[in-house]
Structure formats: structure tokens, C-alpha cells
Amino acid sequence: MMEELQTQTVKLLVLTPNGRNETGYNQDRFIFNSKMNNSKQLQQFQFLGMLFGVAIRTKKPLALPLSPLIWKMIIEEPLNISDLEENDTYYAQNLTSIQNIHQTGVTEENFEEAIPFLNMTGTDWMDNTVPLIPNGHYVSVTYSNRLKFCELALKQRFHEMDEQILAVRRGLSALVPLPLLTFQTAENLERMICGLPNISIPVLKTIVRYREMDENSQVVQWLWDILNGFLDSEKVLFLRFVCGRSRLPSNLSDFSQHFQIIKVE
User: Fold this and answer.
1) Is the pTM here over 0.90, yes or no?
2) Paired strand residues for 131
3) Any idea where the HECT domain is (predicted)?
4) Would you call 118 exposed, middle or buried from its count of C-beta atoms within 10 A (0-12, 13-18, 19+)?
């Protein structure tokens, strides 16, 4: 199911703008699709939140690479322009340039010459033009209102997914009391739901058991040498094969399914 979410079979998630533009951070991360907002689609987001709750309760992580922005939104952590930059570098840089344009010598008199045809519209996470105020297409951005323009552009982005975030929180709250999330950081919540992001071979060695051989056996050494050469995606396939997981839990004491290496004559 997590793979279907990422391959657009179910259109609840979209790649970050940085991912589409191949620039900046979080190029391989996903955000919620704000266009999926009818009652059926919001129920799907609510179910996704329930899956998050199941992952926390059962300590079986989900392989779902959501942007850190989403985890911050779920726990209602305050956001700032750096959160935008980590997901849409170009847009954040444009807003920062407009905000600080006075540092380049631009004044109220030559602002329109420096940035012509700019009106009170921004872009959403899918790069569609959206008005920031009523009839924003017909209201020009000026030197004096440019800071308000940047403020509205940030507000639009950070609240665009409110319906989807609310639905996920509603689903999550069916299994995990939401007040508990106030004591978590976004990073901790991601680890609780998605486990450790990388599959470490030294960590794998701590959850293996041997039968009729030991860790010093030549065949075992060959196995670890081969695994060390695997790509991350190949390590995921190996972990899925030996224990049905795509990620390691954040706390290895929660890993009840040790895999075994058995000597076969």
C-alpha cells in the first residue's frame, strides 16, 4: 500500500516541488495532494492517519518517505520560510529576494521597474497560480506592500493542506491520543511511524541468529560483504524477504522477528 501511495496509483501524495525540479532538499519526499479534498478522499486521508496509529501501536514501521514538513504540520509545529525552502527552494528564494529587495538598492520609485507585472497571486504546491487576496490578479505588488505579499504567500502554502492534515489527525487520534503528540518532535514522530530511514548492516547483525554456524564462519562473512555492497533499495528488498519489513523500528528492542542464518549441507 505504501508503494501505491508513492507511485500515484492512489493520488493522495505528490512529490515535493524540489523533487519535481530536482533541486535542494527532500527531492525524494512526498507531501499531501491538496486537490484531493472531497469527502471520499478525505476519508482516505483519515484512514492513512489510522495506519500511522497502527504503526505506532504495533511498532511496525511504514516505508513512507513524507517530507519533514508534513510531520511538523501533524504535530502543529510552527513553520517558517526555511520549511518552505526545504521543499520548494525556487519559490522560497523568490520570496526572500522580494522581501529583501531594498538591500539591492531598489526603492519605492524603481520597484515596478525591477519587478514588473507582479500581482497579489502566488503558486500552490502543484505550481498552480492562486490569488492571495480577493481579485488578487488585479492588485499589484508594490514596494510598500511587498512584505504583506510575502506573508500571504507563506500563509497560503502552509495552510493549503489543512483539510488533509486535519483528516490524518482525526484518523491518528482513533488510536493515539493527540495530546501525546505535543510532547513529540516532528523527527520523533517520523521515527515512531516510519522507523529508521537507513538499513544499517551493523544494526542488521544485532538482530540475526545463527544455527549450526557462527558469525565468524566464512559464508557469513561473505553474506555481510555482499550486503554491504547493496544499494539502499536492495537492502529494503532483503529486509522484506527475511522478516517482512521495509524499515527497522526506531527502537531495536521492539524488533521481535529476528531472522536466522542456517547452515545447509
Assistant:
1) no
2) 121
3) 1-249
4) middle
- Domain ranges for the chain: 1-194, 201-262
Of 141, 237, 249, nearest in space to 194 by CA = 249
CB of 261 closer than 8 Å to CB of 210: yes
Residue type, 72: K
Q: How many CA atoms lie within 13 A of 87 on its CB side?
A: 25
Q: Counting Cβ atoms within 10 Å, is residue 142 exposed (0-12), middle (13-18) or buried (19+)?
A: middle
The CATH architecture assigned to 1-194 reads Alpha-Beta Complex (3.90)
- The rounded Cα 15 to chain-centroid distance in angstroms is 9
* Distance from the Cα of residue 90 to its chain's centroid: 18
Residue type, 78: P
**CATH, range 201-262:** 3.30.2410.10
**Nine-digit cell at 196?**
529508521
Which residues make Cβ contacts (< 8 Å) with residue 3, sequence separation at least 6?
Answer: 63
Mutual orientation of helices 162-173 and 39-58 as an angle, nearest 10°? Answer: 40
Is the alpha carbon torsion for 162, 168, 173, 177 positive or negative?
A: negative
**What's 161's DSSP letter?**
T
Grouped pLDDT means (10 residues each) for the chain, 265 residues:
61 93 88 97 98 94 91 97 97 98 96 95 98 97 98 98 99 94 91 82 84 87 91 79 67 69 79
